[in-house]
Automatic annotation (TrEMBL):
Keywords: Ribonucleoprotein, Ribosomal protein. The keyword Transmembrane helix does not apply. This is Small ribosomal subunit protein uS9. GO terms for molecular function: RNA binding; structural constituent of ribosome. It comes from Carsonella ruddii. It holds the Pfam family Ribosomal_S9. Belongs to the universal ribosomal protein uS9 family. InterPro entries: Ribosomal_Su5_D2-typ_SF, Ribosomal_uS9, Ribsml_uS5_D2-typ_fold_subgr. It comes from the Bacteria. One of its GO terms (cellular component) is small ribosomal subunit. GO terms for biological process: translation.
Length: 126
């Protein structure tokens, strides 16, 4: 049986598929170490898997867009949603640990006549 879920953060979109297997976790056909490299909080996305004790399940993750940190947060949310499809009793635990909070902030658009969205050119008196 397959379980599929989606998530977004900024411009990053993530799809997670869980099915019974031998415990592999692949992100865009690469391992975590190869995909995220030396990012210190890459193990942050493994917390829901460890809490739910899903050692015999394979996770196939497809993610694109934004930066690596946003991808980590998006993957974590999608994994939590997928685990809830599998076993709903983890909802209270994940809510307490704030694993479902989706951050809707995106970059503000640049306005005409300004250098950035709010930054103005320096005012000159003379």
């Amino acid at each position: 049986m397959k379980y599929v879920s989606f998530s977004k953060k900024k411009t990053c979109k993530t799809k997670v598929v869980i099915f019974e297997g031998c415990g592999l976790l692949t992100i865009n056909n690469l391992s975590i170490k190869k995909y995220f490299g030396n990012i210190y909080n890459k193990n942050y996305l493994l917390i829901p898997i460890i809490l739910s004790n899903l050692k015999n399940f394979d996770f196939i993750i497809k993610t694109k867009g934004s930066g690596k940190i946003s991808q980590i947060f998006s993957i974590k949310i999608a994994i939590c949603k997928c685990i809830l499809l599998f076993n709903y009793k983890f909802k209270k635990i994940f809510r307490k640990l704030n694993f479902f909070s989706i951050d809707n902030r995106i970059v503000e658009r640049k306005k005409y006549g300004k250098k950035k969205s709010r930054k103005l050119e320096q005012y000159s008196k003379r």
